[in-house]
Amino acid sequence: MAIEFSTIQKEGLSVQIANAIRNAILEGRLASEERLPSEAELSERFGVSRSTVREALKRLAAQNLIRSERGSSGGAFVNRMTWSEAQDNLVTTTRLLIGMNDIAFEEAIEARFALETAALPLAAENRTGEHLQQLRTEIARQRDALTNDEDFCASDVSFHSTIASATANPLLTFQLSAAFEAMQPLMNMLVYRLRDRERIADIHEALALSLEAQSGAEALSHLDALSSYTRELAAQRRKPLDQ
Q1: Is pLDDT at 240 greater than 60 in this prediction?
Q2: Which of 44, 84, 125, 215 sits at 20 to 30 Å (Cα–Cα) from 2?
Q3: How many beta carbons lie within 10 A of that of residue 143, not counting itself?
Q4: In this structure, is residue 1 part of a structural domain?
Q5: What is the pLDDT of residues 176-193, one digit of tens each?
Q6: Measured between alpha carbons, how far apart are the two ends of the chain, in Å?
């Protein structure tokens, strides 16, 4: 058992115990599917009551880090977090950080495009026919006059998430897709009244053609055009406030 028991202070015991177990999970000292000691054992090792241990375990279960199973072979077990669950958590955290810390729109734009710029050459190298077909499908959705603003935004996220998937690197796909899902809707919400949807679809099409040709340099130039257009929209959005 690789939980640090000796660092627990007397205040906020259940939170500290939950954090100690959480750190052991995140640092790999507790493996996925590993069974935790019983409440009685944890109570004795931490030197606290069983009710305090129970509260700590409830906190961990609420974070989806552990689960409880009944029966003779039951107990508390470390959950195996899926990519989808981890991405949902990252999206939520990113949105909260942006919303609660007054992140400037321009800073969000800078971060979002810096991430995709770093990954685009790899996407150009590793894209498959399936990725290219998905990109074409999203471009068609974006050009469809019946596509409303909400669906256009969803298509925008899907288009760039497909580029993330084309890197063929699961960690990059995870990080990029979460960033796009967290930040792209914010950008669309703020500038959708100003944007030219056909212009965005044109840039997306040029970007897709560059990926099809496996030209990373050309793809980067089109992404730069999209970044510049987004910044242009941000500047237009500020004008009424500045005047």
Answers
A1: no
A2: 84
A3: 17
A4: no
A5: 888 888 888 777 777 788
A6: 63
